[in-house]
Amino acid sequence: MSEHGDSRARARATTDIELRHLTRTFGEIRAVDDVSFVVGAGQLTGFVGGNGAGKTTTMRMIMGVLAPTGGEVLWEGRPITALDRRQFGYMPEERGLYPKQAVLDQLVYLGRLRGLSGAVAKASVTAHLERLGLAERAKDHVEKLSLGNQQRVQIIAALMGAPRALVLDEPFSGLDPAAVDNMADLLREHTSRGVPVLFSSHQLDLVERLCERLVVLAKGRVVASGTPDDLRATSVARHRLVLSGDAGWVRGISGVHAVDVEGRTALLEIIEHGAERVLLEEALRRGEVHEFSPQRPSLAQIYREVTA
Amino acid sequence: MSTIQQRPEPGRTGGPGSTATSATTGAPSGSDGLGVTGGTGGPGGFAADGQEPAGDGRPWVIVAVREIVVRVTNRTFLFSTLFTLVFIAGFAAFSAWQAGKTTTYTVAVSSAEGTRLVEQAVASARTSSDTVVITPSTVAGEDAARSAVDRGDIDAWLHETTSGWALTSGDDVSLSLQTPLEGAVRDAALDRNAAAAGLTVEALERGATLTADRFDGQTTNRGFVQAATFAFALLFFMGVLMFGQQIAASVVEEKQSRLVEIIATAIPLRALLAGKVVGNSVIALAQVVLFAGVGLVGVSFTEWSSLLPGLSTAVVWFIVFFAVGFFALACLFAVAGALASRTEDLQSTTSPLTTVLMLVYFASFALSGTALKIASFVPILSVVTMPGRIIAGDAAWWEPVVALLVMAAFSAGTVLIGEKVYRRSLMQTRGRMSWKQALRTAD
Question: CA B96, CA B85: separation in Å to the nearest integer?
């Protein structure tokens, strides 16, 4: 895609979803506490956090299913309306469909409720069914489908008819690896036309692989947000040291935190600048250094740090 | 998508040209009909911001149509409807056949006097009903009569005893045979006794008649009124219970599966409720009209066909009352569905409604006099009791009109409150709510 086309598409298509100080309390419990972040147009934003961190509550408030106790959601720089949301694709956390209605019929019904004409809805649903390998199940009742296939039908319900934004709660759970890739491709097609996509997931490796940005939620608050590299920058650098002899002595070096020592290998955090010099000199005095390398922290590691 | 083409907004994005833009820039693998490349206003998707939705049809109509289609294509529903129709038609046909059937009796006699009595009985039977034929047959005496009855050649033996006449049979004598013979024997005896006393039968019977009538000159059939009221009560009770439970089940189905969250982001919940109530009311009403129509045709074949005009008026009123009353009840059943969080909760959330329905059902038989008169103005109760009074002929023309207005007001109020409770409780996913809680909860 050319730069020109990209910027044109972005200017034309959509804007960001902006959350400002969004708060929701249930009785005494603050499920979501002053959450602010932006789901950028054309960006795949991952939403991570443990169980009960407030992801679903936040998404429900974006979609207007739940009223916020405080704060607001902006779309095109103004408070979002029901008519805006009508053109969003939404996938709730707990899923279900009409068990006794044919796949095609109920998807077209849901499309028409969202304001698509019958013909447009049908064309879009049919194309998606083919794409996800469900074309020959179009006339089957949903209850006859496997759980994985029901999940695909749910995905179509959210993606059909070129929605202007996507809010997906755990869209990848229950999918096999091939379907995950398929789904990821589909989502990228939507972001490439400038649509903001927010999706939550427990699978951190997946989020790392797919997302341009991520937002980490813990106990109802945003504890980190930005690109994966932004998040890595805030993390303490780790180094792996492999020696010819036992590495137990590294625990005694000041300015260095030994995260893990096992035989001749040690995983270290350099807390004081310059401590690595002392460490290496001591190591060379004691024997050979086979490896001393910086470790790129995994998202899982960063996640553990920020939510700790 | 015509909305967009008619109203392109200059300087705004999302006009008809947008499709071309993204097509030429070649969005990756999106030109396969998924609607991905359609931009915001292309043929693949939604209208541009702020514009009317591009779909065809109002949301509540789309919901109502789905409710109807799902219901009408449901096999259980079709079978139960068909079964009820066959039952009504079968019952009418049976009554008609029973009424139109000609029964022939052969009565054995042993004397000329007996033959004369039988002939007289035949004549009187013919004037009262044309479905009984009696033929005499002569036998020698008791033994011959007994063996003829045993063989099935004759139905009974008419013979003289010391105190009068006796009709002897192998089993109980049928009333439709006994009654005309009794009349004939009595007439013959009266004739003879009157002549012996030098009088005529007419002189003897003068002043011995009793007729019953009403001040308003109406003629009614009490059994018929009761039967019709029972039919109304049954139709109402069955219809509301069946469709009410269906509405509640379909609401909780959406709530339990969280489909309602997807629907709620697309259309106002008010439209969802309206669609459900209207859709189910249409089918419920169609079913009642069908049953009532078949029932009326059935009645026209029975001995009650002369009462058909009065009955038809009452049936029309019943259907109007049913429609208005059902609307309120449908809304309440939707609320009952919204209060539940799982299908298993339905029994407890619908029980206040089923209790009220049971009361209506029993009140329609139990009430009479002033109580019935009052009941015929009480909403929901009036659905059954007012048409009953119309058939009985003791309702002035304005009474059903007033009762209907009272119920319409009640229905309107119920729908307004019901809509609020429905909205409040539908998004509550944490367990079952009580009716009281739902009324208190804020939005």
Answer: 16
Residue B64: name the closest of B274, B326, B337 by CA: B274
Closest Cα in chain B to A132: B34
The confidence score (pLDDT) of residue B184 equals 85
What count of CB pairs under 8 Å joins A to B?
Answer: 186
3.30.2320, 1.10.150, 1.10.10, 3.30.70: CATH of A235-297: 3.30.70
As a CATH number, domain A3-227 is 3.40.50.300
pLDDT of amino acid B282: 92
pLDDT greater than 80 at residue B382:
yes
Helix (H, G, I), strand (E, B) or coil at A217: strand
Interchain CB distance below 8 Å, B35 and A127? yes
Residue of A nearest to B36 (CA): A162
Residue A268: the pLDDT is 87
3-class DSSP state for residue B134? strand
Specify whether the CB–CB gap between A17 and A74 falls below 8 A.
yes
Tens digits of per-residue pLDDT, A22-34?
999 988 889 999 9
Q: What is the pLDDT of residue B39?
A: 42
Question: Could you check whether A3-227 and A235-297 share the same CATH topology?
Answer: no
CATH of domain B103-205: 3.40.190.10
Rounded CA separation B255/B400 (Å): 39
d(CA A93, CA A99): 18
Question: Which residues in chain A are contacts of B246 at CB distance < 8 A?
Answer: none
Are B44 and A82 within 8 A, CB to CB? no
Q: At B329, which helix (H) or strand (E)?
A: helix B308-339
In chain B, % of residues over pLDDT 90: 10
What's the gap in Å between the CA of A60 and the closest CA on chain B? 8
Q: Of residues B122 and A45, which shows the higher confidence score?
A: A45
A69 CB within 8 Å of a chain B CB? no
- Domain boundaries for CATH 3.40.190.10 within chain B: 103-205
Would the pLDDT of A35 be above 90? yes
List the single residue in B with minimal CA-CA distance to A9. B22
Nearest Cα of chain A lies from the Cα of B70 at a distance, in angstroms, of 8
A8 CA: distance to closest CA in chain B (Å): 8
Q: How confident is the model at residue B42 (pLDDT cuts 50, 70, 90)?
A: very low
Q: How many residues does chain A have?
A: 308
pLDDT at B223 over 90: no
Interface contact flag, B44 A162, Cβ < 8 Å: yes
Of B46, B66, B258, the CB nearest to A164: B46
Query: Domain extents for chain A?
Result: 3-227, 235-297
Which of the given ranges, A154-168, A248-262, B182-196, has the highest pLDDT on average?
A: A154-168
